[in-house]
Amino acid sequence: MARYKVGLETQGKILEATRRLLGESGFEAITVKGICAAAGIQAGSFYNLFPTKDEAVLTVVRDAISTFDPDPDGEGNDTVEALVDAYTGFVIKDPELGRVYAHMAVTAALTQDHLAGRIQRHHEQRVERFTNAYVREHPDVSRSLAGYRMEILLGALNGLSIRWSIDPTFDICSYASLMVDELSTTP
Amino acid sequence: MARYKVGLETQGKILEATRRLLGESGFEAITVKGICAAAGIQAGSFYNLFPTKDEAVLTVVRDAISTFDPDPDGEGNDTVEALVDAYTGFVIKDPELGRVYAHMAVTAALTQDHLAGRIQRHHEQRVERFTNAYVREHPDVSRSLAGYRMEILLGALNGLSIRWSIDPTFDICSYASLMVDELSTTP
DNA sequence: CATAAAATTGAGTGTATACTAAAAATTGAC
DNA sequence: GTCAATTTTTAGTATACACTCAATTTTATG
After folding, report:
1. Contact between the CB of B10 and strand D at under 7 Å
2. Same domain, yes or no, for A113 and A180?
3. Which residues in chain A land under pLDDT 50?
4. Which is it for the CA torsion B108, B112, B115, B119, positive or negative?
């Protein structure tokens, strides 16, 4: 753990580099060597501050998850539209972390054993939060149908996020808006 | 290239193993050593038949793409429902290749440089085929709105495929049916 | 400014990877 | 059955990876 000022600075540089490289090339392609080069340090310095590569990756992932889980205390007042808008809003505001989140939600669950459980849990909570919002807005829709619809909505949102991650000019906001619009007119 | 019978058999064993391992663990985790162990051969034998690992992977990917692009000649008579049903039908019938396809469509475009172009092209063709079917069924909907809707539909289908790939008990067919149903009632 | 703690470096380790080459074994057309 | 072409094996190479450690330098506290 960092105790001196320089150590904290180095920690910051490492996390910044990790975040950028994760967003650029994903969970498979990231290497300690790459992180160190991007941070301008040597491997030994990295391991003075992080016990393993995965620990640095996990720190960034935790950061991405909490960023994209807006205002957890206000859960009882969500609307589906607000949740989707919050997501696309964050993606636009911090595309680097947005890419990390998209990779995480979709690819990392398949390929990163040490993250799979955490990602699965996050997905379930996310579906529940969206479903709660949806039933609150549509009391006449059964909870199970609402769950189906929100699973599809999040599947689509993840799919579109990957599309955007591959092609940064892809206008994810328009697609997300259209999706929410058409959802709100479905009886 | 294989010229003797045993060579062709070995080629078959290699492709079978590659397909299974791709479906099980994805594009990042597959190794020549793993393929050879699963096929019951040595590395030298592999390289007698395939110039590189990527060539074996690409052969399986081509196979997956053509499997999930049903009856290309009948393009002019598609319906969106039939296209989605064909997709989920193939996924159920050959889950191994289905998993390969899902990994490919979503993760490989990000992480496998040698496949990215091919996957991008395939996706664009897929969107176009779906869009053509949709405008044929809904002549009153503009082509651009149809394109948006089909991009979302395919995003969702990809997202749900990944969900199914992570959790094989996930009932992708029900979700896909619901999606098509609700699409057909959208004006 | 002395000193202990922390940070950094540089030069490693071991392991796994894709891929190769030479020799031995097998195949199949004649 | 011969023999050249093909296939298989065995034993490698080179490279990239995560991670380590002893020596050196830097930090900050009294």
Report:
1. yes
2. yes
3. none
4. positive
Contact A159 B156 (CB under 8 A): yes
Nearest Cβ partner of A166 from B103, B109, B186?
Answer: B109
Nucleotide nearest to A5 (CA to C1'): D27
Is there a single domain that holds both residue B80 and residue B157?
A: yes
Q: With helix as H, strand as E and coil as C, how does B58-69 read?
A: HHHHHHHHHHCC
Q: Are residues B33 and B75 in the same domain?
A: no
Strand C lies under 7 A from the Cβ of residue B34: yes
- In a 13 Å sphere around the CA of A101, the CA atoms on its Cβ side amount to 25
Same domain, A77 and A164: yes
Q: Are residues A93 and A180 in the same domain?
A: yes
Domain span holding position A10: 5-59
Q: What is the ipTM of this complex?
A: 0.88
Question: CA B135, C1' D28: Å apart?
Answer: 72
Residues of chain A in contact with residue B165, where contact means CB-CB under 8 angstroms, are: 110
| B74 and B46 belong to one structural domain | no
**Residue B76 shares a structural domain with residue B148:** yes
Task: Decide: residue B75, CB within 10 A, 0-12 exposed, 13-18 middle, 19+ buried.
Answer: middle
Question: What are the pLDDT digits (tens) for B103-143?
Answer: 999 888 888 989 989 999 999 999 999 999 999 999 999 99
Number of domains in chain A: 2
A163 contacts B151? CB cut-off 8 A: yes
